[in-house]
């Protein structure tokens, strides 16, 4: 009795523990993966199959069409300045010449060697992180009995999908066989068709066989793919084989881009104050800042204004809907811009300089309409000087793939297209420093705090591929007069201190934008007009 | 003489002006585009072609394999809680049950209707901005004489490329014809092959014809595509036709992702101080903050520490390599985190709470090694309480596509895989609040300033698809004791004020993370264990 009681007690303790252990042991299938390499083997696999489709045609001659072939950048890129045709007064203004800067030239030799080595190493690692099998060239071969999806097959990580559109048209082998192979997931079948033998369910290679083509194709409709090797954004290559015929296609494995919507709130109207935050950066010029605020309040009394301030001895800036942030002294314009936009909680953010003045031409509603009604992410306006001269600073930015030395950046004044339905507005790549943008997009691109005060275009270059940019010439803000401040006898003490800091200061820790084009963005040269 | 002089003078003035006008007129080919619609027509075009490949097989029966077919989320998703099997002490701890939250239930009816309407509108616009023809399903048809590239063809906006891999195998028509059609660009030829007639050069449709198949295929090698309708990130669909046979493939039109490298600087060594910035947020707890700083300095005397501070009456925090930012009172933890990371100028940023203590187990070098040597973007460590209990807070986040009501979010404790070569480290989706990350990635995802103090996982959910996350259990930071602060008689005045603000404050302007899952991220429900 004594032993039995102890035995029962022991059992009562051990059984749940065993059950618990068993439960955890069967739920965990811990596998180990190597994430140092990147998808090298898949790329090699694909490239082996892309051979010159008709090497036997190589002997057929051709005549090069210069005008087209010179626009192909096959073996790298160059930055070439225009050769000056003739020089006369205002020639640069009337016929702007393109200049070229070779970026390596801004570094001393010893610094350059070290920078190049570091940059190349970073570039290799970056390629491993960014490339997937979905970028590789795949060809669909002619006269193949295989049908399969070439694009559009996606699965969320660790999930399962049916693979659409696979089938086999008649071939000579009986019974009919097909093989499917993958590397980052396994195959299975969601339903069984009688008369088809399936082997390899739950494996990375599955084999289907049937004497009947119709039955085989019906079974193919039910083949599933499950991602088993986790990665948040990658692609698997599926090999689809029947006899001597083989095809490859990719399955993207990724979470879709996460939406990041803004909502004006349950009790709020849909207007500039609930949709837009105004952001600015200030340094010393509190009088101009106050003029800006007063001018905004004439038209938008309730819009939130965020101010980033890196003045040495900051003064308070107060008022309804004012948010004032104090930074360490002299952190700079880019750091200030990045700070200000990091605090925005509305759908759009409007960037202004602290010496702008709002007028009745500063119709923010027009910018909101454009952003609400189109696929644009950012819309620039126009800045009017006291002279009446109004600037939109529209620029086109293009790049060409280069070599180990880097890529080529080309900057030109201009724009791509007019925008239908929005007169006075165009599509471009860079705009003046008065613009409204979708908050999540501007936060994604960011203003690089490594830059101090110069480098307006650096933001737009960082945004290439991410930002769809527009510009309207009829949303106009005025620029407070600089004339007085530029005359030696017209400068107040503040103007003098400001000017000294902004234009003549040597901050050790800041870099200029050309350094960053080379070191950060992997360019080797720049042309601009 | 008099007239001639005037005439000559007039000519001297008018000619350059005319030349100028002519120059500008010929350089500007301004076209207008509609950017309101998104690529609807291309999608429809493709979907018409994806028909059930073998509707004649529909009569063939099949037997469903439950275990596989239930994991397919074909018609939306659901969030289901586990049914409790049995309840006993510690049952939730030993056998965690999954709970489910239907997000619409957190809103009142009137608020919900308005929110849904707004969110649906945002979602439609978002789809127009984000989708391109490169996402659509395309099938490669069997037994087609056409060979063409199915993936990997890319052109930078406004640039020109050769289209690789196109050719035609024998078909019955003589002479042989092929047509190529596009919507966002034009075709041309980089070289002419004699014996082939080409029409439509420079147009959106080109036609090649030749009595000889070999000559036609040689000419096809030289066909170019030029993007003419600008968009920073889109895709064109090319139709490739020969007689009754037709194939579609896409050409991606985009700038490649812009690299954003960091460089320690020409005279700097490659170590934690040059690669890492430590970022934290503080409120009231200056004593704890100072303990943190002192403990960091024991091991890393020169690493930069950025402090975001939203205390009501902030005190100065000074010292070498300290950057102290003052925020408006009570902006919150997320706003503070977003501010702090917006200011980082090093390659990596380490997030810490202001009440952590560094010890000899806080080896940041290990996190740097992992980030330098793998494709990870973020690595979490472990936080040790005074009791000795150490937490890594690893969570797996998965999502399923839903319906108009939204998608489904599933949160589970755990991880995906061990990491080869890094014992103690795993791949996961969310980690504890002590992590090191690539600066450009953490800035891209961002901490949403709309959240005030709660919602740790919200950051990782925003990062789904963007962040590759790891966790190591042997990089440990200590958590300053909370025990004293939690006992009523142990609280200092500061602890009391802190506690009151953090745990009991009702900020009108802040939202909690469930609001955002619904309104911002388009989820309808959440399950978690």
Automatic annotation (TrEMBL), chains A, B:
Keywords, sorted A to Z: Disulfide bond, Glycosyltransferase, Golgi apparatus, Membrane, Signal-anchor, Transferase, Transmembrane, Transmembrane helix
InterPro entries from the UniProt entry: Glyco_trans_2-like (IPR001173), GM2_synthase (IPR011143), Nucleotide-diphossugar_trans (IPR029044)
Species of origin: Danionella cerebrum
One Pfam family hit: Glycos_transf_2
Transmembrane annotation, as ranges: 7-25
Protein name per the record: Beta-1,4 N-acetylgalactosaminyltransferase
CDD domains linked to this entry: Glyco_tranf_GTA_type (cd00761)
GO BP field: ganglioside biosynthetic process
Subcellular location: Golgi apparatus membrane
Species classification: Eukaryota, Metazoa, Chordata, Craniata, Vertebrata
Gene3D superfamilies: Spore Coat Polysaccharide Biosynthesis Protein SpsA, Chain A
Topology in the lipid bilayer: Single-pass type II membrane protein
GO cellular component: Golgi membrane
Family recorded in the similarity comment: Belongs to the glycosyltransferase 2 family.
